[in-house]
Amino acid sequence: MTPPALLLLCFSLFFPFSRISGSPTYTPRPLVIWHGLGDSYASAGMLEFISLIRDMHKGIYVHSVYLDKDLEQDQRAGWFGNVNEQVEKVSEQLADVPELQGGFDAIGFSQGGQFVRAYVERYNSPLVHNLITFGSQHMGISDIPLCRPLDIACQLARRAARGGVYTEWAQSNLVQAQYYRDPVQLERYLSSNHFLASINNEVPDTANSTYSDNLLSLHKLVLVVFSADKTVVPKESSWFGSYAPQDDDLSEKTILPMRLQPLYVEDWIGLRTLDERGDVLLETCEGEHMQLSTGCWKPFVQKYVGGPVQVDEFGSVLAVQ
To answer: Where is the signal peptide (predicted)?
Structure first.
């Protein structure tokens, strides 16, 4: 055997032909969805939405976040639980999904939006590429969402939250209390809240610069508000707006928009830098809270979800676009 032939034989033994001759292929970037209040990770509505996305982006891998594989318990976890612990649990869940290890896009429905943002700021491994939030409460709420007539769990949680929203128990066990931001009781909110005040870096003594670094790793942050939203109070919270501080409940309520928020002006979480970079998009869907018409969600999901990821024939990520 001639030396060149011998060399080729040895090379092929250590590096099979398929590994050196196969050209890289492209697959849609995976997607993670965190459902909203009153829903579960595999409800009929969620499964239908996931099916529509798979029709749109052929071959896409979609992971629906769950806090309990039992559907009723997963739904209940939207009302009762410690949000910080829930976000940590989800970070561990995502880290164990092989298909997500090269990064993913994310969609957060309603409160799921601020929960995904908390994941980005605190963990982000695997990392999020684009984040879309629909009707989320990024600057909290000043009222607890109304309940369906026969939803007893909701009614109990709402009554308990309104009665003692800033008690230690409520701030550790009632999900909505953990992003309840009362413009009349801001000092009490800042001293007792351990979720929203944390991810918004509102308390200087506990501010975390990692939150800013991680948020800035996003390529796009798409914030969608519902034009007639009466569930999120104020609806501008979906765009990082809030009621301005008030002296009492009788004071006139005015909206402090995102770009006038101290959080933005002083760039506590990197939001201003991300916006000035051109990567914060303020979008609107017409209608009430979470009335997701196809004309509303489809353009965003078409543009910001499922971008091509270059992989080799073994599925290893080579490049992300």
So the answer is: 1-22
Spell out the CATH class of 31-143+194-304: alpha beta
Q: What share of the chain is helix, strand, coil (3-state, %, to 5)?
A: 40, 15, 40
The predicted-structure confidence for 187-221, as pLDDT tens digits, reads as follows 999 999 999 999 999 999 999 999 999 999 999 99
pLDDT in tens, 26-74: 899 999 999 999 999 999 999 999 999 999 999 999 999 999 999 999 9
The confidence score (pLDDT) of residue 13 equals: 38
74 in active site: no
Is 110 one of the catalytic residues? yes
Catalytic residue, from 229, 237, 238, 242: name it: 229
The active-site residue, picked from 40, 110, 198, 238, is: 110
DSSP 6-45: HHHHHHHHHS-HHHHHPPPEEEEPPEEEE--TT--TT-HH
Sequence ranges of the domains in the chain: 31-143+194-304
